[in-house]
Amino acid sequence: MPAQISPSILAADFARLADEARAVDGADWLHVDVMDNHFVPNLTLGTPVVEALSRATGTPLDCHLMIEDPDRWAPQYVEAGAGSVTFHVEAAAAPVRLAREIRAKGARASMALKPGTPVEPYEDLLPELDMLLVMTVEPGFGGQAFLDIMLPKIRRTRQLIDKHGLEMWLQVDGGVSADTVERCAEAGADVFVAGSAVYGADDPAAAVRALRTQAEEAARRTSAG
Hints:
Blueprint: E1 4-7, H1 17-22, E2 30-35, H2 47-56, E3 61-66, H3 70-79, E4 84-88, H4 95-104, E5 108-113, E6 131-135, H5 151-163, E7 169-173, H6 181-187, E8 191-194, H7 196-199, H8 204-224
Parallel strand pairs: 1-8, 2-3, 3-4, 4-5, 5-6, 6-7, 7-8
Helix pairs in contact: 3-4, 6-8
């Protein structure tokens, strides 16, 4: 599938979120990091901001819930306007039931894995998901350096997806930039969350286009090889 870029508003100017959302018109998704200061040591935003963003932009919202008790809260983000909702398997009590509820409400269901969480124990859950997120930094803060040691995990995840013939997406989040996006694409990722690499650029929309081109060219090279 074509590469998709999901700019993270965690790196945007929170005083101008509507303008910042429009600054990346042409992005495939707008990544919204929700943190509760419990599951991760940071606090960001909640459903009221998601509702406001959904009215301010035509770009679909990709909500990444770094929160405790996602079984209770995740469905509310669908109701707030999210087109995709990602919960952390480390926090979910019943991930299959939660994924099915997210889908039933009309959004794409996605599950995230921290760097230290292996993918293999969750192989049987993959058919219940539309996307799997492999974190390439520890969740909780933007601007962290990419963890190269996650590349083999991305490859293994892509192999599991292909093994089962699934039409699911493989997302990476953390330290994705012009220096790392090609390695992620070569490993099998096809959805790329980028914060500072987009919002730190003079032209965020151009940065989105450049990252997409890099990822697609890397994926083509890998397929050809």
